[in-house]
Amino acid sequence: MDSNEVVYEVPRFFRVYKDGRIEKFRKHDFVHPSDNPITGVRSKDIVVPENDVTVRLYLPKITQNDQKFPLLVYFHGGGFAIESAFSTYYDSYLHSLAAETNVLAVSVEYRLAPEHKIPACYDDSWAIMKWVSQHANGGQGTEPWLKSHADFSGVFLSGDSAGANIAHNMMMRASLDEDKLGDSLKLVGLALIHPYFGNNEPDGIWSYCCPENPKTDDPRFNPAAHPSLLSKLVCSKILICTGGKDFIRDRGWTYYEVLKKCGWKGEVEIKETEGEEHVFHLVKPTCERAKALMKWLVDFFQQSG
C-alpha cells in the first residue's frame, strides 16, 4: 500500500490518506484560561465527567455577590474540522464577547471531523446543553459559576460558521424535544454569525464527514429547505449576521426569508457587513466593522427575553 496515496481532500481543511492518516492544513494553538485584569473577565476549563466534553467558561466582572448574567452557549467555527474553543482566535473573542455583552459564556470544545464523523459534533454539543440545564432551578449541577451567576430565564445560543450551524441545530433539537432540557431553562435567542448552511454547490466537507446522509438537503445542513421544522423553533428572537463578500452569504439570507414565511412566531433580524468576507471579525477584531458587529450582539443579548 502506498501510504502517501490521497483518497480525499478538502482544500484549506484536511487531506485523507489511503492508510487512514488525516492531515489538517491548519493546526490551532492552545491558550490557557486566564483572568483578564483589564476587562475583569475570568475564564476556566471544565471537563464534564458524564461525557468527557470540555467547555471553557467566561465570567464577566462581578459587582455584587449574587449578580446574574444572561447565559450564552457558544460554538466555535471551522467547517466542523478545524479550530478549537481554546485557540487564540476563540479565547480572545469569547473574552471580548463576555466583557462587551456582559454575558456568562460557555464555549464548547466538540469533537472534530473527519476523525469523528458527524453527528459527533452535535452529540457533544447536546451533552453540554443537558449539562447546563442541570444547573437551572436548583438542579443537580455542581459548577459554582453557573449556579451562582447564570440567569436561566435568559439563555442564548450562538456561533460562527459551522458553530452557527451547530447553534441552530441545538435550538432545533431543544424545540422538538423540550423535556430533555426542562422548563427551568428558557431559550430566548439565537445569534448566527456567518452561518454555514452550504451554498448551491456540492459541499465537500459535509458529503465526506456526514456519511449517514451526505446529501446537502439534510435539515441539519440546509434548514431552510425544511420550513415546517423551522416553524417549531422555541426561541423568541433570532439575529443573523452575514458578510457581503462571504461565499456562503446567500444561505443566511435564505434562512432569514424562510423564517419570516414559515409560521414561526418569533422576531428575526438580519444584518450584513458590506465588503467583508467570512468570519472577518475573528481575523480583524479591532476594525470598525468588527466593532459594529459586536455592537449588534450587545444589543441582541441585552434585550429581555
UniProtKB/TrEMBL annotation:
Keywords: Hydrolase
Highest taxon of source: Eukaryota
Keyword Hydrolase listed: yes
Pfam families: Abhydrolase_3 (PF07859)
Presence of keyword Chloroplast: no
Catalytic-site annotation from UniProt: 161
Alpha/beta hydrolase fold-3 domain location: 72-281
GO molecular function: hydrolase activity
PANTHER family attached to this UniProt entry: ARYLACETAMIDE DEACETYLASE, CARBOXYLESTERASE 12-RELATED
Family per similarity comment: Belongs to the 'GDXG' lipolytic enzyme family.
Protein's recorded name: Alpha/beta hydrolase fold-3 domain-containing protein
